[in-house]
Amino acid sequence: MTTFMIPFRADGKTRLGDPRLALAMLSDVIDAVRALGTEAVLTAGPGGQGNALARALAVQRGPVTILNSDLPCTTGAEIEALADAAPAIVSAADGTTNAIALKDARDFEPLYGPDSAARFEAHLGATRLDLPGIRDDVDTWDDLERVRERLGSNTLEYLKTLAHA
User: Fold this and answer.
1) What range defines the domain where residue 123 resides?
2) Into how many domains does the chain fold?
3) Reading across the β-sheet that carries 97-102, which strands appear in turn?
4) Residue-by-residue pLDDT tens, the chain, 165 positions
5) What is the CATH number for 145?
6) Is-above-0.85 flag for pTM?
């Protein structure tokens, strides 16, 4: 059975400047995992995303799918397609990595950063998938507007509260 991990730091989305929005987006990713009949494991810790995941995965065995928390458009079907294609990755438009499906947790190396998708692809011998809800991460308010029509219910509900403020 695949373990689903989501790295998340409450203060991690500094470009958006809104921790409640970050939580709403995280909730949409968690709901998409729950649609598969399972729960997600949240990871956090000092040293950044890669180090937090490396620590969490050091005690893990078996298939793991890692999903960033800023993917409010993702669906259970996309997550399942990613997990089934392991080893596989989904990159963001800027060449960073939004999601990784590992055949085994021990295959992980903390390769995040600029152009990380190419590094993960080479390291894992991974297939690069184009799954729009996972590809389209939200780092800025412009990103949020670009994907507004596909946002998950938690993010949409939060945006409605902003509209009423």
Assistant:
1) 3-164
2) 1
3) 40-43, 3-7, 64-67, 97-102, 88-91, 127-128
4) 999 999 998 666 667 889 999 999 999 999 999 999 999 999 987 778 899 999 999 999 999 999 999 999 999 999 999 999 999 999 999 999 999 999 999 999 999 999 999 999 999 999 999 999 999 999 999 999 999 999 999 999 999 998 775
5) 3.90.550.10
6) yes
